[in-house]
Amino acid sequence: MSRKVNISVDNLPDSLRGQIHGVESATDNENLALFTDNKDVRITLDSAAHELRAYSNTFNHYDLWGRFVRSGHKKLPLEEAPKKTIITRRISEKVDGILYEGEIKITPAVVSTKLDGEEVECLVWPSDREEKVERALIRLASKGKIVKINFKSGIQYAVIFSMNELAQELKAVGQSMPYPQIKESLEALQGSKLSFKYSATDTKNTDIDDSFYESNMNFLSSLHFSGKKGQGGNVKCVACLNAFVHNMIDNLEYKGYYFNRAQELKRGLSRWMMLRLYHLWRYAAPGKTYHFRLLSIMEKYGSIYSTDEITENKLKALRRDMTTTMKDLIEKGAISEYDITNVKDDKTGKIIDYVYEMHPSEEFCDEILTLNKQNKRIEIQGGKRLVEAVEVIDEDVLEEIVKE
């Protein structure tokens, strides 16, 4: 069962106390109670542990967008900064019948760090390290370490934890980091900016007009620390989530997944693919497959850009990366096998892409079934999914209906 955080205004950092009217924990707030609800995620598989797995949440389309930097500069002293620091990527995802199309821009944070023993200011782009820390942070939130803070300026959701708690979540999935690195990652998440510009098209209902959205925000809205010198892991942290994530929690736009299954994988692409399968393969069942194009998926991941020239050698390198990821997913028990089909240029006959078709394992199908039941129950409790009332008909009335 999730442990709810016990918090009050009095034990918050000084930087927050004067700005706050009140705090609600997940035991007091309905939306947070649903977000931290993991009662129905116990699975009984012969090949898996029979205790509750490490459950967490993933946000519908937000987590599928290429928000992290996979290649290029990840940390640079300011004097070495390139002329162009903002990274632009395309958005193209279909989730629950809604097609999201547009672009996302990632602006790096300026973080004070030590290089060769000297304190210097560096540009830090949110990369694999920051993605690991963000996943662990949301895992803590999903366990109950999340509160609703009523600021004078408005309401925000915040994750409240100690450095040691976050370090333990990372260690549990083989991603141990020293405290200074964890703190720098949190600061990079708070300082890095996201700019969205996209349309949302309801592909199931053509009568509904397309919606257009444009937002600017940080990965984390704000970050606060409190403690004493030399405390290390006992330092208390408050990480306020951005408005986009806040709204997705309120609107139940998230789905559960098994944090340990996805995050234990060593390679970034494998972790990302595993999370993607949990997120999009919600109808996984024996005989049903999931397919994708190599270049498209690598662009979504962030390994390449739509403007890149894909040479024969580059294509081979991308295929090698995906082959390793497919092996990881088979070893992890997510898929049983996969097929590859060549895509050739009509004029030259050259291979220009590959189509992958994945077959789910029985274990993964069972996990998805369990998670779907959990998601359905949460949606019903939250009022997003309506349960049709059963109409009770009197026997005499029923006889009249039959006669007619």
Beta-strand residue fraction = 25-35%
The CATH top-level class label of the domain at 265-403: Mainly Alpha
Computed structural class: alpha+beta
Q: What summary fits the major beta sheet?
A: 5 strands, antiparallel
- Helix-residue proportion: 25-40%
N-to-C SSE string, H for helix and E for strand:
HEHEEEEEEHEEHHEEEEHEHHEHHEEHH
Q: Which runs of at least 5 residues are low in confidence (pLDDT < 50)?
A: 46-51, 388-404
Describe this structure in words.
This is Putative replication protein (RepA-like). It comes from Pseudoalteromonas phenolica. With 404 residues, the chain is α+β, with helices and mostly antiparallel strands. 33% of the residues lie in helices and 30% in strands. The protein has a domain at 265-403: Winged helix-like DNA-binding domain superfamily/Winged helix DNA-binding domain (Arc Repressor Mutant, subunit A, Orthogonal Bundle), CATH 1.10.10.10. It has twelve helices and 17 strands. The strands form five sheets. It has a five-stranded antiparallel beta sheet with strand order 1-8-9-13-12. The protein has a four-stranded antiparallel beta sheet with strand order 4-5-10-11. Helix 3 (128-142) crosses helix 4 (163-172). The longest helix is centred in the C-terminal third of the chain and has 21 residues, at 362-382. The protein is globular, with a radius of gyration of 23 Å.
